[in-house]
Amino acid sequence: MRVLMFGWEFPPHITGGLGTACFGLTKGLVKHGVEVIFVVPKAFGDETEEGFRLVNASDVVIDFHQQHNQEFWEKIQYMEIGSSLVPYLDPEEFERIISLETLTGKDVRKTVFSKNYTFSGKYGPNLMEEVARYALVASSLAKENTFDVIHAHDWLTYPAGIAAKEMTGKPLVVHVHATEFDRSGEHVNQAVYDIERKGMIEADLVITVSNLTRQIVIERYGIVPEKVITVHNAVEPVERQEVGKAGKHVKEKIVTFLGRVTYQKGPDYFVEAAYKVLQRDSNVRFVMAGSGDLLNRMIRRVAQLKISTKFHFTGFLAGTEVDTMFAMSDVYVMPSVSEPFGISPLEAMRSNVPVVISKQSGVAEVLNHALKVDFWDIDALADAIYGIIHYDALRKMFVRYGKTEVDNLKWENAAINIIEVYNQAVYK
Predict the structure, then answer these.
(1) Which domain covers residue 227, as residue numbers?
(2) Are residues 56 and 140 in the same domain?
(3) N or C: which end of the chain has fewer CB within 10 A?
(4) With contact defined as beta carbons under 8 Å apart, do 36 and 29 qualify?
């Protein structure tokens, strides 16, 4: 089995769980003898290729004058990106970039077809332009390579998957890691929703990362249930990084939130729960590790609550920084409002850190040894945190059985289910 796979990010250059999932799944597939050609918009040269081929879309030259490229462009509708799709820029930086884009008055058509086009591989104001160019590159790569099935991860690559399918007639599998309803609640960006829905309709099969996401795909996108298959995410096994007292620097218990500081992740509920815990025990420190559009608001709220001396903002963490943060943590909290899956609790548990997660998360479907609360129930969230840091028997139970549980959630096992999906798409 040979797969042409499209993703938007790849470790170590990631902004969240999408790149981590793509890497783990690809490694799992390779262990089962699947050949993978993994395409990213921009490769930086330090990515780890373990048994698969990584293709840098920025290196692919497109001839604007070729007829099939001209015809393809007519099918692409360029849309200006909205601020809600740039969660990794603060409002001031976003406004500055948009102003520059407006002043330059770029001819998008000429830019997309430029022979020397270089992707940023990020989520900036020209994101839709990059999505269009990426789809054009996909069409070219599909024509030049031999493969059995196409696999597109998340909405950014769905147009690329569709283009590859149209060029070759090979079956398309789209992987839904999150939906626009997860990112924006009921205030969806219509352009993104339309891309997501078209990708799901054009796909031969749709993979969702949880049953929670599967229901959204069926009910909100109108996809027939028989076409939607759940394959839960997993985590890479790793040994706990030991951090001694000198590395921790503080004697207090440490409670950690690690993720994008956006509506979807529920950071405001974490802050409010922290305040309640500190009213009962001041010997605790809270850490918010991540960046996002709600970061400034969270900093202001922490100041209003007068808990700044017990609350720390680290900014975005990646790679070994994440391992170090978990090694220093006594509790990990994921109070997500809507979480299609959520790999970070698994990463915490493999590091022997007990976790508190929201019931509104896909990972809650596969974890038994985690405390689960409704994201909106701040009192229950505070009680769960307080209980773990004060009752040692409870903490030890979650650490012991949680580590065993998560060690069985391996990507190579998830890959077996993915291969079954491929076979169903190829031979149906």
Answers:
(1) 2-234+411-427
(2) yes
(3) C
(4) yes
* CA pair distance 195, 346, nearest whole angstrom: 30
**Whole-angstrom distance, CA of residue 298 vs CA of residue 312:** 11
Domain containing residue 305: CATH number: 3.40.50.2000
- List Cβ neighbours of 308 (8 Å cut-off, separation of 6 or more): 302
Residue 187 lies in a domain: yes
Together in a domain, 197 and 334: no
Cα–chain center distance at 304: 31
Tell whether 224 and 356 lie within a shared domain.
Answer: no
Backbone angles phi, psi at 424, to 5 degrees: -65, -40
Amino acid at site 175: H
Those residues with Cβ within 8 angstroms of residue 166's Cβ, 6 or more apart along the chain or in another chain: 139
Is there a domain that residue 240 lies in? Answer: no
201: Cβ contacts below 8 Å, ≥ 6 apart:
223
Find the length of the chain.
Answer: 428
Other beta carbons less than 10 A from residue 249's beta carbon? 8
Q: Which helix (H) or strand (E) holds 4?
A: strand 2-6
User: How far, in whole angstroms, is CA 48 from its chain's centroid?
Assistant: 19
Is residue 236 helix, strand or coil? coil
- Determine if the pTM surpasses 0.85: no
> Helices 267-280 & 295-304, crossing angle to 10 degrees?
20
Cα separation of 262 and 275, whole Å? 19
Burial (CB < 10 A; 0-12, 13-18, 19+), residue 82, is middle
In a domain, residue 343? The reply is yes
Which residues are CB-contacts of 119 (< 8 A; sequence separation ≥ 6)? 41, 42, 57, 58, 130, 133, 134
> In which residue are the tokens 């939906």 written?
179
Q: Which residues pair with 289 in a beta bridge?
A: 258, 315
Cβ neighbours, 10 Å, residue 175: 28
